[in-house]
Amino acid sequence: MATEQELQSLFNTLDGDQDGKVSLNELFLSPGLSAIISSETNTSSPQELLAHYDSDKDGSITFEELKEAVKKADNFVGN
Question: What would the 3-class secondary structure string for 39-61 be?
Fold first, then answer.
């Protein structure tokens, strides 16, 4: 279970170009971190994460979208 601070740190690490979004390519560049995201969101792959939680369908995940995915998986600790 992730706190918001832990999730933000993970997101910032994955967001290699620091554009505020994590693309499918960035998820594949960090397979270990992608595995953590998959377990926290109960998804089996980066593609599944995007298919279910990319609410604006721009091909990437924002921090808010990631936080919502973790909340829906009931793995979020905090506010």
Answer: HHHCCCCHHHHHHHHCCCCCCEE
DSSP helix/strand/coil, 62: strand
pLDDT in tens, 11-62: 999 999 999 999 999 999 998 998 999 999 999 999 999 999 999 999 999 9
Distance, in Å, from the CA atom of 29 to the CA atom of 78, rounded to the nearest integer, reads: 29
Burial of 1 (0-12, 13-18, 19+ CB in 10 A): exposed
Judge contact between 2 and 68, C-beta under 8 A: no
Sign of CA dihedral 37, 41, 44, 46: negative
